[in-house]
């Protein structure tokens, strides 16, 4: 009150002096406030550009196999150089002509907008620059309050101070909303026209540039007339700016546009169980958090081979009858690298997303025997080691219980058979005798070497695969044989980048020599024997039903329990495991159920490797080949009706000739020479 009284009584000169004084103080305060604001913006540095973006998965050939986005919001980031120049010019022309000249605020445009608003008595013209819009899209809501406007101005300052004009424009074009769930120009280009942002025509670019002002009102799909009018305004503005010629305006306006609406087309889901495996690897192995996966715009490069995946799915679909409720799982890997090439975790992902290739554990049956026989090789056995196959009851160490395994259909040789025959014919008596002779704990240790992580027990029946394992781990374990004794870990993801191509993760391939290279090759030869009828004795070799499908060197082993059917095997460049059974663990119904796994495996292997180079298993120097009589494992003579080339570690090959079919004079002489060289001790203790 005193101030106003003094002011009224003051002279004119005094009033002028006071006004100048307070004007200087106010101006100084305003200038200091602005300087302080600029300093604060500078000190705070660049704001984090946390833009939700769609994550994309790619197959090994570079094709897109899947997307992960935020609730149907499609967001892709493309660099400015991959955005059509007409789209850039159209956007600048209609949204912010002075974009490259101002520092975030177009003062002339703001003054013009205020004047227009005053004349109209309402807000009729916007004055936001591209930078202001970008700031609002990134950090703020669209509420019309002074607080929000101040925050927008502050973020605009920080953006202009920290990023170049091209970086701001690139960010704006990748975040602006174009309607129909499409955020960013790449998503909009794909949705409206089915093409990339760098492939747009002038007509398409000018149409898209008009949508952000009102994504619903100017949608060419919902309101084509509104969209066409705005397109004409934009083209005229571009001609005034000189970015296009006047003749281009009429042509672009008259072009008939065809709208694809790409996201609404049904796209076949590629390898859903494999994608599930990728997601599990991202979270559990690479520790990528869910937000980064869903909103981070990651580019995930996987090991999937689209051809092999298609063959796997097609084979399963065509080999199992439609009305069966039986389930299956298939894993195919490159044993040399660990790259998972194909994966099926069930017959229908939409019906059941339970991934049997990763999550299910079932008894592997006789597919576990190769680990037993590798253990036997480590303890003096060879492919020719004989053991009698006959019905046998084993007394357990507790002095009370007995164990009485049986062969399939109770077929026994009732005679001695070789280890090569035991594996090829899947003789259970030979396997259990060997396991007990070696000590069951040795088999447990060997399985762990091969990468079997499931819980095992040192019991007689472990030789027959009585303890449950997973399809992926068993398939990978077989890969050790194929890879010359080296173990690798299964790989689903080779590389992850951000949306701009910066590498965030890259897989480093490593291998570990876990078993002997020579013995691994001998085991491969033994596993090739499961398809060789020369080893047939009292029953067919286990691969006899599918060996006529195979056109290249392959090794493998089938296995079955009352509830499960398996086939695992490999060529030099591909190892595949197949399991078939029922989810509720009910028994397999008939011969169809038990035969599915072998047929799926054979058809898949042949189809997957079609037109691929036929490779042979590479023999190491420490292995030698000899011709034997496969029925007794002895060196063959010219009198033997059936012979087979078999492989042994050097120094362990048989020295005794077969004499079951008569022996020639030449062979008799060789036998006498060998006998003389052996010496007294070896002649007495020849075993």
UniProtKB/TrEMBL annotation:
* Family annotation (PANTHER family): BINDING PROTEIN TRANSPEPTIDASE, PUTATIVE-RELATED, PENICILLIN-BINDING PROTEIN 1B
What is the native source organism of this protein? Fictibacillus phosphorivorans
Q: Which residues form the Penicillin-binding protein transpeptidase domain?
A: 329-598
Keywords attached to this Swiss-Prot or TrEMBL record, sorted alphabetically, are: Carboxypeptidase, Cell membrane, Cell shape, Cell wall biogenesis/degradation, Glycosyltransferase, Hydrolase, Membrane, Multifunctional enzyme, Peptidoglycan synthesis, Protease, Transferase, Transmembrane, Transmembrane helix
Q: Which domain of life is it from?
A: Bacteria
Compartment(s) where it occurs, according to its Swiss-Prot or TrEMBL record? Cell membrane
**Membrane-spanning segments:** 21-41
Query: Can you name this protein?
Result: Monofunctional biosynthetic peptidoglycan transglycosylase
Protein family (similarity comment): In the N-terminal section; belongs to the glycosyltransferase 51 family.
Domain Glycosyl transferase family residues, every copy: 63-238
The Gene Ontology biological process annotation of the record reads:
cell wall organization; peptidoglycan biosynthetic process; proteolysis; regulation of cell shape
Catalytic function, reaction form: [GlcNAc-(1->4)-Mur2Ac(oyl-L-Ala-gamma-D-Glu-L-Lys-D-Ala-D-Ala)](n)-di-trans,octa-cis-undecaprenyl diphosphate + beta-D-GlcNAc-(1->4)-Mur2Ac(oyl-L-Ala-gamma-D-Glu-L-Lys-D-Ala-D-Ala)-di-trans,octa-cis-undecaprenyl diphosphate = [GlcNAc-(1->4)-Mur2Ac(oyl-L-Ala-gamma-D-Glu-L-Lys-D-Ala-D-Ala)](n+1)-di-trans,octa-cis-undecaprenyl diphosphate + di-trans,octa-cis-undecaprenyl diphosphate + H(+); Preferential cleavage: (Ac)2-L-Lys-D-Ala-|-D-Ala. Also transpeptidation of peptidyl-alanyl moieties that are N-acyl substituents of D-alanine
Q: NCBIfam families from the xrefs? A: PBP_1a_fam (TIGR02074)
> What cellular component terms from Gene Ontology apply here?
outer membrane-bounded periplasmic space; plasma membrane
InterPro entries, per this entry? Beta-lactam/transpept-like, Glyco_trans_51, Glycosyltr_51/Transpeptidase, Lysozyme-like_dom_sf, PBP_transglycosylase, PCN-bd_Tpept
- A Gene Ontology MF term for this entry? serine-type D-Ala-D-Ala carboxypeptidase activity
Q: Does the keyword Nucleotide-binding apply?
A: no
């Amino acid at each position: 009150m005193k101030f106003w009284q003094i002011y009224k009584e003051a002279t004119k000169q005094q009033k002028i002096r006071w006004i100048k004084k307070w004007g200087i103080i106010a101006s100084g305060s305003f200038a200091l406030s602005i300087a302080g604001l600029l300093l604060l913006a500078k000190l705070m540095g660049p704001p984090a550009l946390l833009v939700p973006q769609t994550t994309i998965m790619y197959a090994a050939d570079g094709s897109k196999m899947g997307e992960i986005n935020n609730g149907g919001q499609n967001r892709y980031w493309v660099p400015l150089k991959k955005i059509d120049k007409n789209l850039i010019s159209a956007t600048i022309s209609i949204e912010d002509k002075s974009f490259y000249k101002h520092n975030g605020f177009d003062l002339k445009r703001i003054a013009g907008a205020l004047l227009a608003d005053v004349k109209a008595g309402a807000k009729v013209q916007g004055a936001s620059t591209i930078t202001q819009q970008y700031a609002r899209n990134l950090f703020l809501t669209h509420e019309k309050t002074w607080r929000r406007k101040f925050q927008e101005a502050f973020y605009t300052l920080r953006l202009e101070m920290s990023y170049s004009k091209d970086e701001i424009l690139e960010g704006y074009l990748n975040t602006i909303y174009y309607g129909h769930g499409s955020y960013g120009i790449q998503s909009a280009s794909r949705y409206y026209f089915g093409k990339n942002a760098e492939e747009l025509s002038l007509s398409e670019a000018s149409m898209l540039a008009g949508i952000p002002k009102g994504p619903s009102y100017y949608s060419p799909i919902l309101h084509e007339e509104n969209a066409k009018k705005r397109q004409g305004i934009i083209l005229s503005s571009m001609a005034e700016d000189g970015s296009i010629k006047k003749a281009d305006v009429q042509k672009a306006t008259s072009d008939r546009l065809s709208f694809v609406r790409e996201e609404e087309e049904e796209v076949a889901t590629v390898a859903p169980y494999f994608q599930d495996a990728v997601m599990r690897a991202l979270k559990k192995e690479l520790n990528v958090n869910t937000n980064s996966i869903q909103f981070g715009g990651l580019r995930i490069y996987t090991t999937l081979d689209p051809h092999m995946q298609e063959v796997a799915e097609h084979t399963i679909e065509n080999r199992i009858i439609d009305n069966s409720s039986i389930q299956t799982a298939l894993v195919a890997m490159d044993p040399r690298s660990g790259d998972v090439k194909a994966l099926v975790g069930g017959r229908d992902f939409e019906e059941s997303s339970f991934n049997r290739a990763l999550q299910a554990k079932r008894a592997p049956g006789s597919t576990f025997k190769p680990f037993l026989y590798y253990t036997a090789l480590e303890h003096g056995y060879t492919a020719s080691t004989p053991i009698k196959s006959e019905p046998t009851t084993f007394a357990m160490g507790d002095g009370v219980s007995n164990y009485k395994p049986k062969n399939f259909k109770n077929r026994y040789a009732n005679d001695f058979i070789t280890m090569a025959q035991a594996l090829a014919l899947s003789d259970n008596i030979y396997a259990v005798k060997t396991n007990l002779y070696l000590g069951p704990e040795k088999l447990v240790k060997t399985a762990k070497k091969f990468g079997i992580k499931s819980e095992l027990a040192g019991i007689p029946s472990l030789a027959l695969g009585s303890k449950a394992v997973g399809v992926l781990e068993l398939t990978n374990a077989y890969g050790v044989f194929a890879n010359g004794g080296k173990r690798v870990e299964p790989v689903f993801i080779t590389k992850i980048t951000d949306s701009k191509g910066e590498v965030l993760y890259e897989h480093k391939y490593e291998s570990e020599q876990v078993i002997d290279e020579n013995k691994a090759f001998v085991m491969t030869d033994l596993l090739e024997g499961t398809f060789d009828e020369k080893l047939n004795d009292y029953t067919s070799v286990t691969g006899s039903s599918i060996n006529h499908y195979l056109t290249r060197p392959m090794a493998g082993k089938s296995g079955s329990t009352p509830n499960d059917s398996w086939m695992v095997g490999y060529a030099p460049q591909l190892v595949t495991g197949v399991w078939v059974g029922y989810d509720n663990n009910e028994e397999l119904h008939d011969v169809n159920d038990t035969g599915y796994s072998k047929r799926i495996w054979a058809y898949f292997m042949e189809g997957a490797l079609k037109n691929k180079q036929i490779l042979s298993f590479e023999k190491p120097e420490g292995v030698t080949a000899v011709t034997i009589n496969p029925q007794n494992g002895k060196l063959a003579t010219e009198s033997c009706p059936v012979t087979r080339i078999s492989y042994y570690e050097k120094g362990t090959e048989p020295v005794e000739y077969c004499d079951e079919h008569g022996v020639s004079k030449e062979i008799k002489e060789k036998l006498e020479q060998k006998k003389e060289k052996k010496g007294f001790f070896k002649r007495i203790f020849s075993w």
